[in-house]
Amino acid sequence: MNYNVNEKGYYGDFGGAYIPEMLYPNVEELRQNYIKVMQEPEFQKEFNELLKEYVGRPTPLYFAKRFSEKYGVKIYLKREDLCHTGAHKVNNTIGQILMAKRLGKTRIIAETGAGQHGVATATVCALMGLECIVYMGAVDIKRQAPNVARMKMLGATVVSAESGSKTLKDATNEAIRDWINNPTDTHYIIGSVVGPHPYPDMVARFQSVISAEVKKQLLEKEGRENPDYVVACVGGGSNAAGIYYHYLDNPEVGIIAVEAAGKGIHSGESAATSALGKEGIIHGSKTLLMQTADGQITEPYSISAGLDYPGVGPMHANLFRSGRGEFISVTDADAMKAGLDLSKLEGIIPAIETSHALAIFNDRKFKKDDIIVINLSGRGDKDLNTYIEYFDLA
User: Which residues carry this modification: N6-(pyridoxal phosphate)lysine (predicted)?
Assistant: First the structure.
């Protein structure tokens, strides 16, 4: 079975481009050009130079000795938190801004939940001198204030989404509306492996630099390219797509996706799409989606703004449906504890999104000599207020 996208834009049953007529020219222009542009030697050169000189790649593959000892297994952390802007998001925004320039776009829009993608988009727009508008849910604007300030310092306009749950899906709705109204000069930088084809594939390709580096780094450290498992948190799923990418068709590498169970999978306050989702269409693609019996989207909940999304990207929906990926749901409480554990054991404060991936070891048992690579997708600066309130650290 092939776990990459097919020529029609589908991963198994999931994917495609379910878009209003008005968006067809934009999406089609991108679809016809994205692979051709990405393969141009000049594009590759500029992309790789920026990743090295501006983002700070390659990011280290760090053996977490004390964290490993606690769980009796070998745990490596892929340090995406050390990227410029503090998360993996910038790998994709660098790629997409170069794509937008080659397609003659002068205005950039984006959506953001945790704010990391918004910051990464505002950063590359400042770098390239392009106008930047970021849509963000009103609830997320409150809980991610430092990132809102960063975006504004970088010259972006932050627009509050006031509809629905006022979180990520509502910000995405607003961004799509803007794109429909400004089709010719605007490129929409989607921050995850969601949206209409070719976005899930394009974003996964830009993020695949993560697993490409892991293969080289693990070979140096362990004498083998393949770990036993790669682990990542999944909201939309771009950091996960990045670390899975070069292992998708390699059955000896286990793929573990960790979702946000919020206050419990069946508590009514959760974002565990694999457990609760049914097939549906959201933001231009067919995927697994939390919804009511009559197809209305259920409001997701997670303590982490970046996992607070009612669906997953079509690549991940297919990994779940096919059984290639093992999906684990982690509650707020377990994630917060794991974040504090890593801070105290390794001196690394992770983003709360990443903390979900770190929390699997209490329940999921591994063999003693298993090598596990966790994508440490972002750093915890943006979440300090949440950590402070949760653990009463003030």
Answer: 89
At 169, the pLDDT band (50, 70, 90 cuts) reads: confident
Whether residue 326 lies in the annotated active site: no
Catalytic residue flag (residue 89): yes
The domain total for the chain is 2
Reading the block at residue 371, the tokens are: 């090598």
The yes-or-no answer on residue 68 being catalytic is no
Tell me: pLDDT of 35 over 90: yes
The catalytically annotated residue of 238, 302, 377, 382 is: 377
Selected catalytic residue, list 74, 78, 89, 169? 89
Q: Which of 80, 111, 174, 213 is catalytic?
A: 111
- Model-level pTM greater than 0.70? yes
Given pLDDT bands bounded at 50, 70 and 90, which one contains residue 236?
A: very high
Distance CA 128, CA 143 (A): 29
Residue 5, in any domain of the structure: no
Please list the residues that pair with 134 across neighbouring strands. Answer: 110, 158
**Residue range of the domain that includes 158:** 21-51+89-203
- Extract the runs of DSSP E, i.e. beta strands, from 283-370: 285-289, 325-331
